[in-house]
Amino acid sequence: MSSLKTYSKFVKPYWKLVIVTLIIGMIKFAIPLTLPFIMKYVIDHILLGPLSLDEKMNGLIYVIGISFVVFVIIRFPIEYYRQYFAQLITSRVLYDMRNKLYTHIQKLSLRYYQNNKVGEVISRIMNDVEQSKSLVETGMMNIWLDIFSLTIALGFMLYMDPVLTLVSIVILPFYGIAVNKLYKRLKSLTKSRSQALAEMQGYLHERVNGIPVTKSFTLEEFEEKQFDKKNSYFLKKAMAVTKWNALTNAIINTLTDIAPLLVIGSGGYMVLKGNITLGTLVAFFGYLDRIYNPLRRLVNSSTLLTQATASLDRVLELLEEPYDISDKPEAKSVNQLKGEIEFDHVWFQYDSKSPWALKNINLTISPGKTIALVGMSGGGKSSLVSLISRFYDIQKGAIKVDGIDIRDVRIKDLRSHIGMVLQDNILFSGTIRDNILLGNPECTEDEIISAAKAANAHEFIENLPNGYDTEIGEKGIKLSGGQKQRIAIARVFLKNPKILILDEATSALDLESEHLIQGALEELKKDRTTIIVAHRLSTITSSDQIIFLTGGEIMEKGSHEELMYKNGGYARLYNIQNLNETNVK
Q: With 80 as the cut, is the pLDDT of residue 557 above it?
């Protein structure tokens, strides 16, 4: 019930249109209900009535003329607008739901995406939302219209003959029993099928992204077998739903076919006894269709609604996923920063079952200074920089910017002052211009070009077939690693942040690309607080301070010269790298 209550909030903005559509639908359904009554009138009063031939002909023409106006001229626009408005409401509700979900997933923390497959999230936003459309189309409109149609038909039948009406509806209780027994199981089966589909989509999303790995290891046949397992599992779940639907339809259709036989037998007997007219029997038989068609649709609606509710449950599970990172009600708005950063006894772990990634970190970074984080893999370097943007929240201590705890600052304001250049920057499909503009979507063409020049990217962009309008493909696949990095740097130039984070920004590049990018980064670092996560220690020797991390703890800090003089962990790491580079030369 709570899920339908939540869903009704999406329908609420369109309630006036829902009412209009229901009224139009009532007229649309009421018109065909007059047909059996018209047939009764024609048989009893015109064909078999005590009238002259001319009177019968005139009466027939009169009835057909009026019926033609109602069924053709009046019904056509009613049919059109009923269908149009119903589809309009459904489409708008799905549109609103997807927008709401997309806004929601933007606010979910990185922790959520580490624990859930992207393909499964996409499946809920696309497939499950689409499956839920029956709740509006069927649940909020068709069911009520079918009940209205059923009520009017029963009213006509009771007016003609109450006894034959009771014969006609004697099997209705069996419908209720069938629906109650059969559809409890169907919801569970449908939810399992949706989950199997989401798992297959999640697997497919991962494998499509990893095609280069599959090809390089010649795993095509292996992957085909793995996908077949996922596909077979989905088929198994889909067939379970299909079998249950088939059983349901078989039972319902069998029950439905009993009623006409009862009416023919009972009604024929009553005509022979003179209790009812032939026209009444024909009309009753016509109204049987008007009763059992809505009933059949109601049963089918139960199937659709059961499946839609199962999908809706999955949508709401995503929509109700809590935010790990959110603004406090009293969070401050910060328009300007000097760029001072302080870690005050900070402890951090990714979840309660994981070991501490950072332990008792105490560190102060003065505005405009450059510090470098170094150490072996797993030492906590990337964890530390991810906390500054509040991608995760710490368990103990405080992180402050300009003396303010970042948990007391609006997340949007905090992140607007931070620019990041990563080892593997994400570019989106579209043009180079589109990707640079992500730094500041409101910038002018001149500002885009200036940012590209500052990032040493303008020259290579101009040499591309369409310049800044060149399509770069998904994840920038049409660009080299160095070109992608320079686009990412141009993006940060356009953002113009006060705090700059460089996480292994040049470690995966060749020497020529690294030289170009180092020049761009030196320009980018000017007048900004800069934190560099470095793998190649020769690139950070000029930093104001170097922090050596091991096992999530700060083991050493100081300038390059000071740390070399100490001859500790940093010096050993630097000497090993220097020796390796010398041997390579």
A: yes
Tokens in use for 472? 């770069």
Quote the DSSP letter at residue 324: S
Helix (H) or strand (E) holding 548: strand 545-550
Structure tokens given for 425: 């920057």
The Cα-based distances of 128 to 28, 191, 470 in angstroms read 31, 10, 35
User: Could you tell me if 245 and 186 are in contact, meaning their C-beta atoms sit under 8 angstroms apart?
Assistant: yes
Strand 545-550 relative to strand 370-374, pairing: parallel
What string of DSSP letters covers 11-34? HGGGHHHHHHHHHHHHHHHHHHHH
CA distances from residue 323 to 100, 104, 393, 485, 571 in whole angstroms, order as listed: 14, 9, 11, 31, 42
The Cβ-side half-sphere exposure at 498, using a 13 Å CA radius, reads 20
Calpha distance 164→161 (Å, rounded) = 6
Summarize pLDDT for 467-484 with one digit per residue, the tens. 888 888 877 778 887 888
- pTM exceeding the 0.70 threshold for the entire prediction: yes
**3-state class (DSSP) for residue 285:** helix
Beta strands in 26-160 (DSSP E): none
pLDDT tens string 483-539: 888 888 888 888 888 898 888 766 555 566 666 777 777 777 788 898 988 877 877
* Band (581; pLDDT cuts 50, 70, 90): low
Degrees to nearest 5, angle at CA 325 with 322 and 330: 105
- Mean pLDDT across the stretch 351-356? 85
Q: Other CB atoms closer than 10 Å to residue 280's CB: what's the count?
A: 21
> What is the torsion angle, in degrees rounded to the nearest 10, for the CA atoms of residue 245, residue 247, residue 252 and residue 258?
160
| Element housing 315 (H / E) | helix 278-319
CA–CA separation, 391 and 415 (whole Å): 10
Position 139 scores a pLDDT of: 63
In the chain, the N- to C-terminal Cα span, in Å, equals: 72
Buried b (16+ CB within 10 A) or exposed e, 412-441: ebbbbbbbbbbbebebeebbbbbbbbbbbe
User: In 63-185, at which residue ranges do the beta strands (DSSP E only) sit?
Assistant: none
* Radius of gyration for the alpha carbons in the chain, expressed in angstroms and rounded: 36
Q: Which two tokens stand for residue 476?
A: 């920038």
Q: Which of 89, 86, 107, 101 is nearest to 6 (CA)?
A: 101
Q: What pLDDT score was predicted for residue 360?
A: 92
Distances (CA, A) of 430 to 413, 469, 477: 27, 8, 11
Which residue pairs, CB below 8 angstroms and at least 24 apart, start in 461-466?
461/432, 464/432, 466/431
Token pair belonging to 90:
């459904």
At residue 11, what is the residue type?
V
- The confidence band for 548, taking pLDDT boundaries of 50, 70 and 90, is very high
What span, in angstroms and rounded, lies between the C-alpha atoms of 368 and 338? Answer: 8
Tell me, what's the pLDDT at 398? 93
